[in-house]
Amino acid sequence: MNIINIEHIAKVYQVGTEEVHALRDVSLRIDKNEYVAIMGPSGSGKSTLMNMLGCLDTPTSGKYEFNGVSVSQMSDNDLAKIRNKEIGFVFQTFNLLARSDALHNVELPLIYAGVSASERKERAEQALMDVGLKERMHHKPNELSGGQRQRVAVARALVTRPSIILADEPTGNLDSKTGEEIMILFNEIYEKGNTIILVTHEEYIAEHAARILRIKDGLIESDSPVSNRFIPKARFATEQA
Amino acid sequence: MSRFALLSFEFKESMLIALRAIRANKVRSALTMLGIFIGITVVVLMTTAIKGIDNSFQKGISALGSDDLYIDKWTWFTNNEWWKMRNRRNITMEDYEKFKEMAKLPVAIAPEIDTRQSLKYQTYSVDNVFVLGTTAEYVRTTNFTFDQGRFFSDVESKSARNVCIIGSDIAKKLFPLGNALDKEIKIGNEPFRIVGVLTEQGSFILGAFNPDERAYIPIGCVFRNFMNRAHGSITIDVRAANTAMIPDTKAEAEGLMRKIRGLSFNQENDFGINQQEGLIDNFNKVTGVIKIAGLFITGLSLFVGAIGIMNIMFVSVKERTKEIGLRKAIGAKRRSILAQFLMESSFICLVGGVAGLIAAILLSFLVNQFIVTSVDYSAVVIAIVVSLITGLVSGFAPAYTAAKMDPVEALRFE
Predict the structure, then answer these.
(1) Chain B residues with CB-CB distance to A160 below 8 A
(2) Which of B334, B335, B407 comes nearest A56 by C-beta?
(3) Is the confidence metric ipTM above 0.90 for this complex?
(4) Cβ distance B359 to B48 under 8 Å?
(5) Tens digit of each residue's pLDDT (9 = 90 or more) over B15-60
(6) Closest partner residue to A97 among B6, B323, B331, by Cβ?
(7) CATH number for the segment(s) A2-240
(8) What does the domain layout of chain A look like in residue ranges?
């Protein structure tokens, strides 16, 4: 079954007296265990599409079904529930709580899911272990490197066992070497059977995905599988060295 | 999870989040608490001081006796033209004697007249003391209790012996080392033997009426030493049997006094029959203004503290826009965000309020040196409730702003 089923959605913003058509007519299906990269220049509507996919925003018109449930007309609170349970976000700027250690940052979505403190700790520790940060659990973001911070963010996205991971320029704030480490991590997550949607404007990052979706002027310009996808190897070379 | 379990879970978690935020901004939180701290301290202290003033007055009234009538040349607390009253005939000792003979209802009747004199003992002296001349029966118009000794006797009173009773403040000033009984002091230039010292009444609010600062001597001594009998107008203190008897006693007194003074039916009373009610009304009028003004001014400081909280919470919300965006993105509902910020502001207020309360209780011991008072239990409860409400009210607008933020906008905020 499709996890994401979008039919003819459009999004219109009112900026002053002018109407901005961020998305015009987009239809899209994403299956379980797909690895999709969304590409497009700035102003193309890719951010709007990402917000829509992440249930952060609702379309002006059209239909959006997530796991068979229509979310296009949902209330704020119901959207919050969907985001909490079904979607793991990874942001370009990490968005970690500066004053909390890695463990608490990873626990955060579980708090809103109503998980008890002891189970939260257990699951957050496991998630941090999965991204190779077992030793750094009690470090605050400013005591971690950029790559480590992003790995904390990935652990936070994974901890609720969501249906999709939605990553917005996850390597945008990292140098190419640490960026590559994050892409190795994503590949692992993908190979474990997760669904990943990656928003990027870098061609070589997009080539890690199995399918590339190009957006331009609020429309899907092309949607094609990647014939020889780049599969990164060697896990966390820098840390092990 | 049941609905209740869910709510208590959310309550607990919001509180933990709020505590983290407060801990993360220690200095700022402490400064904000200071506003509420000062507000609660002054409000509680003011309430306590007002209570002390009330207490003092009530004590004084009950020491003087609340069932008393005062027959006086002057009508107290009235708008009657003072020049008419000034021209009234004096109330004389003869009037008193006739009245005492004829009156049936009062349980005690005593004349009194004031004179201001200096009191001396060895090198100690107190100037301008209200020395009250009266008879032995006076003590029965009051509720005086004695620290040492007794009131003067009927014999001492009738023969105008040089004996006196002094109030506790006078005793402290003339005899710092205590033991005033049987000592000889000088009132004016006359020697008087102390036969009694009154227990402290602590009714400073009564001013000249305060028994603590008075001395009592036989009325004959006043006329012999300090005042020409023809010039002084006395007051007749009349004690009714009980409060219910006051109207009857008053009516009898009025009838008798008109008879004694030889007034015909068409003449106005040329005397006043006064009650403490007048005193109480007057007191309430004055202290009412003090209470309202005091509570208003101290309430303002609490209000300023509340504005401080609101201000800081707005800054805090603005500063943490991105955090709010993230929390919403990963699944925080509106009410979670609302609760988080409301908890933060109420916790700051509660801690500030409790600290303020403790400070007020400590300071009230200091106030107690001047005004006998203590912090009420009700003040404790009210202070805590008020600080909580302050936190909720002043935190609501900022918390609501945070709760209704659009996650997309908030995440984009730099």
Answers:
(1) 331
(2) B407
(3) yes
(4) no
(5) 998 998 888 889 989 999 999 999 999 999 988 888 888 888 887 7
(6) B323
(7) 3.40.50.300
(8) 2-240
